[in-house]
Amino acid sequence: MKVVLRITTHNLFKNMRRNLTILLNMILCTFVIFILLQNYHFLRKRHSEYFSSGKTASNYEVAFAVDEDEITYANDKLNLTHMFLVGQKVIEDIESNSNLFVYSFAGNSTRLSGIQNKVDLSPFIEETIVFDESSISNPVLSLNAFEAYHLKISSGRFFTEEDYNLESGQPLPVILGYELSSVFQLGDIIEYKDNEYSDQAVVVGFLEQNSGYVIWNAYYPLDRAILSPFEFPRMFDHSNEYRRIQFIYTKSDDVDVQAVVNNATAKNGFYTLEVSPVDGVQVTETKTISEKNVRIIGFLAVISTIMCLSSLSMILYHRATEDLPSNCIYLCCGIPLWKINISVVLEMIVWIILSLIPTIAISFSIYHAVLVPMWLLIFFAMMITGIALVPVFMVNKKCNLDMFIRERIVF
Amino acid sequence: MPFLELKSINKSFGKADKSVQVLTDLNLVVEKGEQLAIMGKSGCGKTTLLNILAGIDSPDSGEYYLDGKLIQIKSASEGVRFRRNTVGIVLQQFALINDFTAYENIELGLWESGLSKKDMKTQVSNMLEKLGITELKDKYPPTLSGGEKQRVAIGRALVGNPSLLLADEPTGSLDAGTEQHIISLLSELNKESGATLIIVTHDEEVAQKCNRVFHLEKH
């Protein structure tokens, strides 16, 4: 083993320029394998399993319907989190566009981004919703929506994180509009019962008079509303369903929202997300840039992998030819050929490990995770390297001491 | 019992009717510690004989005994094992690894010996001293003269204390002055170690320094 390690160390450090070429080649190779595997996963998963487009939006809407069970399953069992993570990155890219405000509403992980407290939403108000005198609205609000919509409590409290993580059987906390304060008191239980569902809510707070919020270009007054962290009554049969709706507001009519979304999906090699305008009219020219890109990138990655493999094989072949006299000397000194070959394999393992680092770093910096399972990446990198090593073993087999002594193998 | 004995060795190259007979019914006996020069015209089979002695090639027929044991090399790996602790080889073109220092090149002869790093260091240092090249130990072959390179090569061949030292035209790449010096050194170190030295050469002066000369005839 000592001999193998000595030859390996010697090979690793003896010709830095040549070794650097090998390393760069392998980095490139690993990177294209990474892209190849990532795209393979995307193509393998049906678009409809994860995403659907909807029309109900104020200005534009992109709706994601994802089964929470499936996400959990994917995370824990199949390690297929890349789709979800890339989806997050697409959303981040859309949200970071300075021409848009993005409001995202997603079950128990509702969040608000883009629209900050200081943003004046009044330009988007086109109408004020007037409810029937007898009706009570039941908006479901996220934790941070109170802050975003400047909602103020006259008595009681806002919702807390615990309210969004209720255990089964606990009454649903609700905050009531100003007008309902004459009917209910803090701590009152509101019961709901019909043929299908029954549920209980507990009053935890009252809003100030004239409270309201803007959504879908309309002002919704909340004086006669029951605000809750979940839909009331809770439909426990569907409690696993995780629905996420993304609303995109433009700052001006000139902004092509579909183009912005297309750019984000194309940049991340993600499936097309179709945006629909507020009036429900379908966008006529929905491009499928990103889906095409996934296939094109996949194709290019295959070509690149083949080119990298050829290039790596050539470099290693030339190196093996140059090393032939040295290997003959090893044989003269009683060092068997298998030790020489194993040292080459060990050396390549070192290069594989080093070549993985940039790919992992890039993946982490963009997606905060390695999107492709590590074992799969290492497996493919080793497979490519193994193929590239075949010519090396063939050259090493030509270590003929008779030829060497007769000076037909020269330095 | 002689140290080395070749009995009716035959060796040919090529196939069927195009084959060339290089060695025919060759018999040779070499005693332990003897210094033998093998001479002959080009193509008479000197290097082929050396290869058979080194376990690099096998004869078509005949028997090769070394230290009383019948040597039968059936594969390249068997040849490697045979050479490991038995045979030292010195070649005309020095056969040094250019990325290794003189010290490392000599140490290479001990890599498969199983010695500890400390013991290896002692043996290599002793050899450097015997060769008179201690001050060159950190130099790389491209910076050494022909004579210095050959000393390093001799050091590598002898450092493992082989019982048989084979040299193929060891002075072929050296000038006359250096040639004399290297042959004297080789002879001296050989006597000291007690190994058997077989030199393949076409140089009469080199041959005369040996105890005996064996002439090979071309067939």
Present the secondary structure layout.
The complex is a heterodimer of chains A (411) and B (219).
Chain A (H helix, E strand, L loop, with lengths): L1 H13 L1 H29 L2 H4 L9 E8 H11 L3 H14 L4 E7 L4 E2 L14 E2 L16 H4 L4 E4 L15 E5 L12 E5 L4 E10 L4 E4 L2 E4 L4 E2 L13 E10 L6 H11 L8 E2 L11 H44 L4 H31 L6 H24 L3 H5 L6
Parallel strand pairs in A: 4-10, 6-8
Antiparallel strand pairs in A: 1-12, 1-13, 2-3, 2-12, 5-8, 6-11, 7-8, 9-10
Helix pairs in contact in A: 1-9, 2-8, 2-9, 2-10, 5-7, 7-8, 8-10, 9-10
Chain B lengths: L3 E10 L6 E11 L4 E6 L5 H9 L6 E6 L2 E2 L5 H11 E5 L10 H6 L9 H15 L14 H13 L5 E5 L7 H18 L2 E5 L3 H5 L3 E5 L3
Parallel strand pairs in B: 3-8, 3-9, 6-7, 7-8
Antiparallel strand pairs in B: 1-2, 1-4, 4-5
Helix pairs in contact in B: 4-5, 5-6
Order of helices and strands of chain A: HHHEHHEEEHEEEEEEEEHEHHHH
Percent helix among the residues of chain B?
25-40%
Mind summarizing the main beta sheet of chain B? 5 strands, parallel
Spans of chain B with pLDDT under 50 lasting ≥5 residues? Answer: none
Backbone CA Rg of chain A:
31 Å
Helix content of chain A: 40-55%
What is the radius of gyration of chain B?
A: 17 Å
Strand content of chain B: 25-35%
When the domains of chain A are counted, the total is: 2
What strand line-up does the widest sheet of chain B have?
A: 6-7-8-3-9
* SS strand fraction of chain A: 15-25%
Distance between the termini of chain A: 27 Å
Query: Can you tell me the residue ranges of chain A where pLDDT is under 50 for at least 5 consecutive residues?
Result: 45-81, 104-134, 236-245, 278-289
What keywords describe this structure?
heterodimer; A: 411 residues; alpha+beta; 2 domains; 5-stranded antiparallel beta sheet; 5-stranded mixed beta sheet; 13 strands; 16% strand; elongated; B: 219 residues; alpha/beta; Rossmann fold; 5-stranded parallel beta sheet; 4-stranded antiparallel beta sheet; 7 helices; 9 strands; globular
